[in-house]
Amino acid sequence: MVKLTLTVNGKPAVVKFDDPQMPLLYALRNDVGLHGPRFGCGLAQCGACTVHIDGSPVRSCVYPVSKAAGRNVVTLEGLGKPGKPHPLQQAFIEEQAVQCGYCINGMIMQAKALLDRNRNPDETQIRAALKNNLCRCGTHLRIVRAIKRASGMMA
Amino acid sequence: MTTSIHGVSRRDFLKTSGALVVVFSLGDGRAGAARSPHAAQNLGKTVALDQVDGFLAIGSDGSVTVFSGKVDLGTGIRTAMTQIAAEELSVPLERVEVIQGDTALTPDQGVTFGSLSIQVGGMQIRQAAATAREALMTEGAKKLGVSRDEVTVRLGRVYSRTNGQDVSFGELVGGRDFSLKVDTNAPLKDPASYTIVGKSVSRLDIPDKVTGKFTYMQDFRVPGMLHARVVRPTALKSDLLAVDDTDARKIPGFVATVRKDNFLAVVAQNEWAAIRASRALKATWSDWQGLPDQASLWDYVRKTKINKDEVLQNTGDSVEALKTGAKKLAATYDFAIHTHGSIGPSCAIAEFSDGKLTSWSASQQTHLLRKQMAQMLRMKEQDVRCVYVEGAGCYGRNGHEDAAADAALIAREIGKPVRVQWMRADEHGWDPKGPPTLLDYRGALDAGGNLVAWESEVFIPDRPSQIQVTLVAADLAQLPKEAAHPGNIHQALAIQYGVPNIKATAHWLAETPFKPSWIRTPGRMQNTFGNECFMDECAAAAGVDPLEFRRRNLKDPRAAELLDRLVKLAGWTPRTQRSGATSGDIARGRGLSYIKYELVRTYVGVVADVEVNRKTGVVRVKRFYVAHDCGQIINPDGLKNQIEGNVIQTVSRTLIENLKFSRSTVTSLDWASYPILTFPDVPEIVIDLIDRPRERPWGAGEPTAAVVPSAIANAVYDALGVRLRSVPFTPDKVLAALKTA
C-alpha cells in the first residue's frame, strides 16, 4: 500500500493505493470523497471524469494516480460552490443547461480549459472544443449557450 | 429559487403516524448517514394510493413533504412535482420537498415511463393536495371560529376574511396524519390564479449538479460496503465451464469470487481492486453462436415465427379499397436495434440485515423491482425495500434494475453490503435493447388524389402478460423470473388520419435477438417513422403539399391549430413537388412530420432542415422546428429542455446508431463502436409551445422523439428525391439509394 499526498483544489489530500497504475479518478472519488469527476466509460471516450492537472484538462479515468504526484489537481468542486459558483457554474444554472447532469462535470471542466485560452470563443469554436464530450440527454444547445454566457460574464 | 431548498436535508427526520420515518439525505453529501437501522421494514407510513397521507405530510413547522412514486430521471419532474404540490396547497415553493421512489415511503404510481409522470403521477399528487387544502380550510375555519366560506388559503396559512385572524398549516395538522381518503371531487384551483404552475421555475437540482455537491447513485456509499464487479459470459448464452481465480486472489484487497451457475462476480475491499480482480479472473465459457447474422437481420425478422397477429386499427375494407384504388403504393421500413446509451453505467448497492434486503438503485420502477427481486431471491415482498437514488439518465428500462439484482445476489452470498458498478462494456453489452422493428405499408389513392386505403404491418417481439424485463442475474444464476416484456411497442401504429379504409396489424414474434425493453418512445418512435414516411410518400404520389395532404385527413381543430402554428414557425411554403436546392455537392431539403401521441394525447408537429452531401452520403440536420401542445404546461423551460433532448437524442438515433453484434454477442461495447451525435452535428432547435392552462396536462418526455426520424427522411427526399427507409441513415445507405434513384 502506497500513501501519496496530492494537491487537490489547493489542499493536500492523502490517497492510498496498491497499484500505481490505478486511475486518478478512483482516488479522487473514493479517497478524497469528491463527486464532481464521474465514471462514465473508463476509456477516455466520454469526458465525464475530466479534471485539470496543472491547468490542462485530463481524463482522470485513464490517468495513473502516481503521475499526479507533485501536480495541481483541480476538480469541479475547486471551481466554486453552490453559494459561490464559478461564472461557468453560474452560467450553467442561468441557462438551465442540465438534464440528468451526469456529463456536466466534463462539460464545465472542458469549457474552463477553452475559456482559459480563448476568452471569447464563438459557437463553432465552443462546439469544436466539446466534440469529444458526450451528452446523451441532448442538452448540447444549452451547454453551448451557457459557455457563451460565461465568457460574457468573465469578460 | 435558491439552493437551500434542494437536498432533502432540511429535515432528516420526519414524524408521521407516531413512527419515526427516516428520510434519506441525498443532496448534502452525507448520503448514507441517515440509513435506518431497520431499513427494510415497514416504516409505519401509509403508501396507499387513495390516502392523502400516502402522498403528503405536513410538519409542525409547516414544511411539506411530497411522496412521489414517479422519479426524476434527469427530466426535471422533481421540480415540476414541487410546483404542482406547492400550487395546489397554496404554500411557498421553498416549503416543499419531494421524496421519490422508496417502496417504504412512496405510493406505487407505476413505472416512470410512457410520458406519464405529470399526466398521471402529478395529477394524483395534485388531487391529494387539493383534498388536503380543503381539509385544512375546514379545520382552519373551526379553529378561527368562522364559517367555512369565510376562509381563504395563502402561503401555507388559513385566513379569515371576516375577523382578520389566521392559522398556519403546521398548527392545524403539523406532524399528524390527515387520515383522509383522496377526494377525487375535491375542487382544483382555478388556473387563472396560478402563481407557481406555468412558470419557468429553475430546476432545484441544478446548482448541486454543476458544483459536484449532488449525490448520484454512483456516489452513494454505505458503511462497511464492499465493491463488486460482474464478469459476464463471452457469448449471450454461454455456460460457465471453469473459473480459475488464482491470479485474482493475489490482488491486494481481493475478498471473494461469487459464482452461481453462469453468474460470476468478484468482490474486493476497494473499487480498483474489484476491477483488477475481474480482469485477472480466468473464466472458461462454452461456445454459443445462436444470434442471427447481422448482415441478414431483416430476413431473419421477417422469417421469425409469428405467435399471433393483432389488429390494432380496422376501418372500412382496406383489401377492397387497395384493389380498386387508382394509384397504389407499397414500402417497407426498418429501424435498427438500439441501446439506451446512459452516460453513467448502472450502479446499485444492496444490504441484508436480519434477513431483510435494502436495495439502492437508480431504478425507474422501485415497486416493480421489489417484486422482481423478491421473486428472484425467494423472499417476501415486504422484506425487500427498494430506494431510488438518482443516477445518469436512463431513457427507459436500461441496466439499473439489473445492477440492483447483481448487488442483491452478491450481498446475500457475502453477508456484507455490496456496491456493484457496471463497467462501460457491461452497459452497452447487457442493458436490454430496443428491438429491431420491421414495417410494411400499402396504400391507395383515388383518381382525385385522395388517400383511400392504408395498410400497415409491424413485426415486433411478443409481449408476455407482465410488463417487466427479466433481471440478468436471475437469468444467469437460473433463479425464478418472468419472461421479458418489450413494452407497449405496438403503440402509435394506428393513425389519426381519417382515411376511409385502414388496417393496422401487429405481428407478435416468437423471438428477437436480444432481450428487449422499452427505450425512449418505445415502438412509437419506430412505428411513427413508418407512418409519417409513408404518409409523405402518399402525398408526393398525389402531387399534394405534404402539410396540406395531412391537413385534409385531419378533422381535429387542435391538430389544425398546431399545424397552423408550425407553418408560421417554420415558414413552411406549400409545395407540390420537391423544393430541394443543390449547390455543389450539397443538397438541401426540408421535411415535416406530425403525431397526436397514441391518438389520445400530446400533439407534436416538426419541420426538419437538412443538408446532404451527394458525394459522401453524409446527412446533416441543420435545424428542427417544433410546435408542441401537451395541454397545461407546468414548467415551460423544463418542457423545452425535454423537447430539445428528444430532438437531439433522436437525431442521433436516426443518423448514426446501430447496435453491432456477432453470432455470439454484442460487439458495440463502447462509444467508439456505438457512436452517438456530438456537438458539431447538433441541430438548432426552434420551439413553439402551445399552452392550454385549462386543459389537463399530458406527457412530454417522449412524443417529440416519435416524429424526428420521419421528418429527417422526408427532408432527405426533398433534397435528393430518394427515400431512406432504413434507420440509421448512414452514408453507405444514402449513396446506395442515390445509385438506384
CATH architecture of the largest domain in chain A: Roll
Number of domain units of chain A: 2
Spatial arrangement of strands, main beta sheet of chain A: 2-1-5-3-4
Q: Structural class of the secondary structure composition of chain A?
A: alpha+beta
Cα gyration radius of chain B (Å): 27 Å
Order of SSEs of chain A: EEHEEEHHHHH
CATH fold field value of the largest domain in chain B: Aldehyde Oxidoreductase, domain 4
State which percent range the strand residues of chain B make up.
Answer: 15-25%
Main β sheet profile of chain B? 7 strands, mixed
CATH class of the largest domain in chain A: Alpha Beta
Largest binding interface between chains? A-B, 60 and 64 residues
Biggest sheet statistics of chain A: 5 strands, mixed
Note the main attributes of this structure.
heterodimer, A: 155 residues, alpha+beta, Ubiquitin-like (UB roll), DNA polymerase, domain 1, five-stranded mixed sheet, 6 helices, 5 strands, 35% helix, B: 741 residues, Aldehyde Oxidoreductase, domain 4, 4 domains, seven-stranded mixed sheet, six-stranded mixed sheet, 19 helices, 28% helix, globular, disordered N terminus
